[in-house]
Structure formats: C-alpha cells, structure tokens
Design a protein that fits this description.
By secondary structure, the chain is an alpha+beta fold. The chain is built from two helices and seven strands; from the N terminus they run E-H-E-E-E-E-E-E-H.
C-alpha cells in the first residue's frame, strides 16, 4: 500500500478564531459549507471540537462510501483533525491568522488500496479530492464572511 497525501489551502475572509469555531462546530456551522460530495452528516456524540463523532456519506469519482469520523483538537484554536474510525484516513485543518483574515490548509492522508483498484485510486483520487477541497474552502470563505460581525444570538459559533 502507498501512503497518499493531498494538500489544499485558501484564504478565508474572516478572523482565524471565528473560522476555527465554524470548522469545529459540526452540529450547526460545518454542515453549512460542505460541498455536495459530503452528505447526510449526522453527529453521533458531542457536536463541537474534541470527541465529536459523526457519520456521513462521501461520493468521489462516482463512488459513495459511508464514513464514521472522530474530531480532535491537537492544538486548540489552530489545528483540528478528523479521523476515520474504520480506515487510516485523516484530515488535518490548520488555521493561520493573517490580520483580519486567515489561511486554512487541509491535509488528508490515507493508504491506497492494493492492486488495480489502488492504481486507479492513486491516479485519480488526488485531483478529485483537491477539486472538492477547493470548493469546500471557497464555501467556507463565503460562509465565514456572513458570520463576521454576527452576534451569538444570530447563530455564530461561540466556542462551546
């Protein structure tokens, strides 16, 4: 098996602390900026940050699979990880302040399948996943901009 690593990043037009809270809030905010490749997100426990577990359907390259994920905050306020509980797949979100904006980097690592299936996975998955992540980062940027200046009663994540 070959270890694959996909990296994509973008600028979000909102402060790093707000952006971090939006990403960490799987119950209310994170679903608001997911691209169509991710659907049926259901929080099983928690809902914000460390210990949150959830399931979702992921469709990439015409193939759909169920995932059960667990969120951790190895560096609260800066780094969030989402790990699949049934495979070695892990995605790391790193949020870096840049004045009134921030930079968000997504890194996903996993072990590719063996044989012909693995060959096609290594050939096509990186480009497909990068495209999905670019879409997600653009959606996050648009959504985060709507949350700048919102008050807690308007629904902005407050960092439970």
């Amino acid at each position: 098996m070959v270890q694959l690593r996909i990296v994509e990043e973008g600028v979000v037009g909102a402060p790093a602390d707000l952006t971090y809270r939006l990403i960490a809030d799987m119950q209310h905010h994170h679903p608001q900026f997911l691209p169509p490749a991710f659907r049926d997100l259901r929080v099983e426990s928690g809902g914000y940050g460390t210990g949150t577990t959830y399931t979702m359907q992921v469709t990439l390259g015409g193939k759909t699979r169920a995932m059960q994920m667990r969120m951790e905050e190895p560096t609260p306020g800066k780094v969030i990880t989402e790990a699949d509980l049934t495979t070695p797949l892990q995605t790391t979100w790193t949020i870096t302040p840049e004045g009134a904006h921030c930079r968000v980097q997504l890194v996903t690592t996993w072990s590719s399948a063996a044989g012909l299936q693995g060959f096609f996975e290594r050939l096509f998955s990186p480009a497909i996943l990068r495209r999905v992540y670019r879409d997600e980062l653009q959606r996050l940027d648009r959504y985060a901009r709507t949350q700048v200046g919102a008050t807690p009663q308007d629904g902005v994540a407050t960092g439970v």
